[in-house]
Write a structure and sequence with these properties.
The structure is a homodimer of 260-residue chains.
Chain A (H helix, E strand, L loop, with lengths): L1 H4 L6 H12 L8 H19 L8 E2 L2 E2 L1 H5 L1 H20 L8 H15 L4 H11 L6 H27 L3 H28 L2 H4 L5 H4 L5 H27 L5 H12 L3
Antiparallel strand pairs in A: 1-2
EC number (chains A, B): 2.5.1.10
Family (chains A, B): Belongs to the FPP/GGPP synthase family.
Cofactor (chains A, B): Mg(2+)
Chain lengths: 260, 260
């Protein structure tokens, strides 16, 4: 569990929790437990995705994947335990910090974002789509679920912790939706033009696995245009919140311009 | 997910939730969500335990194991999704039925029972003990964690939902501890003397996998004596509660005398 948690990674999800709380002028530290829980969910999903029965990847974040070091059985259990512990961490947020009702809302929304309506559902759709020629709509369905829902929950968690009102939650959710698509389009672009050493995993694996990607469906230039469009929409929704979203704007630029 | 949930099984854990609530003279239906959540956790653990990288079992509850029907990848994800959904179900118990604080307590305790301090921890210890000659103490450590903690949580969940006081919780926890050991001793005995068709999985697999068992450490007669001792202690703790524990007593007899 610790090996994979400490293997690094971009920590985009925790950053989104903190930056969202910061937008409300509150102490980002209020989001520490939620940020840790979300990063555990993300890490468990990577451990299981990398298993031989799934993507069979040897390298992740520049290091041997969990099952390469500890074997398939322990990797499966480490993932299970991280997923389980993430809910314990959310349930244990001190009462004086966040009300019991808000903690329950965080737990239910995290489960939705991570389960069949979210990440796991997207992963299944992704596997079923392998080797097939997908439409842009089908590709977006996969990404919205596989990556977008947990990114969206990171923003929602920050908003719930900060006590956002309904209209702020709607604008922030729309922001997260477009940010998630931008994130995935850039991921696909990096698999074509990226540097293996900077990314820390194999590049070109989408082509090898005959996966549908944005560059394949839209051409590389078309994918870059779609990335600009999603980035623009993400920022437009941020502007609607009336909050001090400097950090969220910066994260959006980071996501769109990252090289790993 | 549905294939494995509906494959049958003894439903001992849900029965424990209901019987515990019944002991307080309350409507067992109050425990439906908790019972469902616990059975989902149990089912996910069986799906993952049966995977080729773990116990590599082809038959479970008299039917082909999940990965035999759906493949290793989908079986892994079905387990992940059941685990995730179990927390969503607990978090969604209506507010008029159980307070938010109690729901949070249920979530945290279920995570502890299922995670590294509980079921997953026991599974890792079990795997590490394979092929080794274990002491009785080491064997009990494995069983208390791998099976006992979730059985214990089933009783605790019923007690929390029914509003048990601290002394009742202590007696009921001690009851569950001994019931869990009785359950496992009978499991080991059945692997020696049981009927494959009634059990619905391979018998003799402990010997094949050179696992330490109670009959091996204590002889078959010694294991039967230990079973009687644990059953006796379980019932003695029930008697201490001052509750109407008729159903819990019956479940204890069922666990000790079951042939599958």
């Amino acid at each position: 569990m610790i090996y994979s948690l400490e293997a690094g990674g971009k920590r985009i999800r925790p950053l989104l929790v903190f930056a969202t709380i910061d937008a409300f002028g509150m102490d980002p530290k209020k989001g520490l437990s939620a940020a840790a829980a979300i990063e555990m969910i993300h890490t468990y999903s990577l451990i299981h995705d990398d298993l031989p029965s799934m993507d069979n990847d040897d390298l992740r974040r520049g290091k041997p994947t969990n099952h390469k070091v500890f074997g398939d059985a322990v990797a499966t259990l480490a993932g299970d335990a991280l997923l389980t512990y993430s809910f314990e961490v959310l349930g244990n947020i001190p009462n004086d910090s966040i009300t019991a009702e808000t903690r329950l809302k965080l737990i239910v929304e995290m489960a939705k974002a991570a389960g069949t309506e979210g990440m796991v559902g997207g992963q299944v759709a992704d596997m079923e789509g392998e080797g097939k020629s997908l439409t842009l709509q089908e590709l977006e369905y996969i990404h919205i679920h596989k990556t977008g829902k947990l990114l969206g929950f990171s923003v929602l968690a920050g908003a719930l912790i900060a006590g956002a009102n309904q209209s702020q939650i709607e604008s922030l959710s729309a922001f997260a939706h477009h940010l998630g698509l931008a994130f995935q389009i850039q991921d696909d672009i990096l698999d074509v033009v990226g540097n293996e050493q900077e990314i820390g995993k194999r590049v070109g694996s989408d082509t090898t696995n005959s996966k549908s990607t944005y560059p394949k469906l839209l051409s590389l230039d078309g994918a870059k245009a779609a990335l600009r469009e999603q980035t623009h929409r993400a920022k437009a929704n941020l502007a609607k919140t009336g909050l001090n979203t400097t950090l969220l704007m910066e994260i959006t630029d980071l996501v769109a311009s990252r090289n790993h």
